[in-house]
Amino acid sequence: MKLTGAQILMEVLKEEGVKTIFGFPGGAVIDIYDELAKTDIHHVLVRHEQGAVHAADGYARASGGVGVVLVTSGPGATNTVTGIASAYMDSIPIVIFTGQVPTQLIGNDAFQEVDIVGITRPCTKHNYLVKDTKDLARIVKEAFYIAQSGRPGPVLIDIPKNVAATKINYKPPKKIHLKSYNPTYKPNIRQVSKAASLINDAKRPVIFAGGGVVLSKASKELTELAQKTKTPLTASLMGLGAFPGTDPLWLGMIGMHGTYRANMSTGACDLMIAVGVRFDDRVTGKTDEFASQAKIIHIDIDPTSIQKNVPVTIPIVGDCKTTLGQLNKLLDKEDLGDLNEKRKKWLEEIEKWKNTKPLAYAQEKVIKPQYVVEKLYELTKGKAIITTEVGQNQMWAAQYYHFDKPNHFITSGGLGVMGFGLPAAIGAQLACPKKLVVDIAGDGSIQMNIQEMATAAQCGLPVKVVILNNSYLGMVRQWQELFYEKRYSQTGMEHAPDFVKLAEAYGAVGLRATKPEEVEKVLKKGLSTPKAVIMDFVVEQEECVYPMVPAGAPLTEMLLV
Amino acid sequence: MIEEKHVLSILVENQPGVLSRISGLFGGRGYNIDSLCVAETTEPHVSRVTIVTRASKQIIEQIIKQLHKLINVMKVIELTGTEFVQREMALIKVNAKPEHRAEILRIVDIFRAKIIDVGLEHYTIEITGDEDKLSAILSLLKPLGIKEIAKTGIIALSREPKIV
Fold it and tell me: In this structure, are residues A387 and A419 in contact, taking their beta carbons and an 8 Å threshold?
């Protein structure tokens, strides 16, 4: 069968089950776009390539599958870099196709030429430049495999224009085999059995879950472990939803803006079972004093995550789901004793922390941002998919919306990208058309990718944007208030567009609340409108996110309200 | 943290960009490279990279794991702490005034080096050996005036009979 590179690409995409692509056309990919038009694949035309990658990220997280991006060479490619770096930090499987100038022009500084393979080398799991059409199908298959296996991540494929246009005799590639890439799924059983006996011996254990649990679809096994051993559980930002946020064993989020009881439990525990985490500095605070009384069991599929930031007692390299399954089986055979008796003192201590310093705010005459998130949680019964921007809005979403299921909280955790939430919501809405998808945003970050409102409108996607509008870049302002003597250097955003009118200009619906009593009404109306909606909540300007662990301080030294 | 010297032998797929993935990893994560040597093995699709680095115990563990994580890296062997042989080659262009020529020849002879190029005012010496031998000949030649030097960096192989 004689096919062009572009036709071969479509064949392989179909074979990989790709139904949706996020992209933006251009000269170098015009042959690919021409073939794309002849397929059933749904192409979502974004308004900026960064939005395409965040949308693919949201799509991948909400669906538990892989996101696909197609952009042109040069600026099309460079605009994807932030999105790729975010997906890389958060281990999200995405395959990005970039166009490239024809092979004979590469290196000549041709029009819209950029070395995107060079640029993205440190922020992709792997990347390729296809120099010959006959390698294309194999490379695409490899990319999909690499992106989704082991610790997932973004893989970029750079396709020169002539590679897409050249016709060759096409034979579908056989099963791919990568000699030098074999992720370890099965843990060393001796390590798992050592872990089981540590768990049995522990008096004050805590489970600390991360994004790895969500990625490996191990929530069931994690919940079983916590309940079987009556072990309280905390999670990183990326791990929210891995364990039911309404379960009595749930401690709340750990870290810089974690709950008092989660951080105090970390300081006091004698065993930490860390699953699918990488001990980011926003989690650990001062590493020397992190869980300093505890032995640590660390389960992760990526060996580089282990012993990188925090020394651990029992390292276990393996897939979270497989490993937790084996651990649960071993624990079934152990005599755990009377757990109610064994955990009584520890759980009582935690209950005391919970009651002395709960998450709190005082509702006054102006709207408190926390109140908006709390109301949103109430009205959606905790069932919405929540995406966030980055900063205070993200932390309040994490603190006041309680996630019972994985894949419902979608946020740029590692890289912290402002402008992530709206395109991610678009991706999530496409993956889950029947679900309610809400982007919790700030007035600063929503403006970073606001152009994607047009994408939502064009695709008829009923995404909801909740803006916690304080006319500040709130998180930086908070740091300036607390640590820089209130010198609000360049954090005031006095001039913002009228978000209600802006929504209307994009063909969406705009609503506003300025008083606490309007919040519920606006939310109810906005959430029940079957269109894209921006809800502008004019909130307390100088509200801070608490608790807060100052950067580099031990977790137990929190600033409280 | 005490930094120690480590010799790593890395087998990689012989593909464009592999070296840049490795050097980029070292640069991006702030690891040291003392020397780096790369060439094809007997199998044309496989290359061997020898890297000498200085790192603490915790960092060398990270370096090895991070190298493993690169898709094109097939094998990473830490030779330091095992039985292995290492060699480095240097080409040294040294001033050779008539009154010094006999002295240079004597030094070359003692070190079993070779003179591979002769000019009106210089000799170019080829020498192979371990680091100590190279630094010894350099310290003897230095007073005579070294004009230029090129070194390969260390290459090394395990002394184990099995192939790694």
Answer: no
**B45, closest residue in chain A (CA to CA):** A179
Domains contained in chain B, number: 2
In CATH, the number for domain A189-356 is 3.40.50.1220
Residue B71 near residue A178, CB atoms below 8 Å: yes
Whether A125 sits inside 8 A of B71 (CB atoms) is yes
- Residue-range definition of the domain harbouring residue B121: 87-153
d(CA A67, CA A17): 11
Q: Where in chain A is CATH 3.40.50.970?
A: 2-169, 369-538
Alpha helices (H) along A392-473: 392-400, 421-431, 452-459
The strand order across the sheet containing A464-469 reads: A409-410, A385-388, A437-442, A464-469, A533-538, A509-513
Q: Is A256 a catalytic residue?
A: no
Residue (of A83, A19, A36) closest to A55 by Cα position = A83
The model's pLDDT over A394-430, given as tens digits with 9 standing for 90+, comes to: 999 999 999 999 999 999 999 999 999 999 999 999 9
Instruction: Based on the residue annotation, tell me whether A326 is a catalytic residue of this protein.
Output: no
Mean per-residue pLDDT, A475-487? 97
Question: Which pLDDT tens digit goes with each residue over A203-260?
Answer: 999 999 999 999 999 999 999 999 999 999 999 999 999 999 999 999 999 999 999 9
Maximum C-alpha span of chain B: 57
d(CA A15, CA A356): 56
Place of tokens 């370096």: B63
pLDDT digits (tens, 9 = 90+) for B53-97: 999 999 999 999 999 999 999 999 999 999 999 999 999 999 999
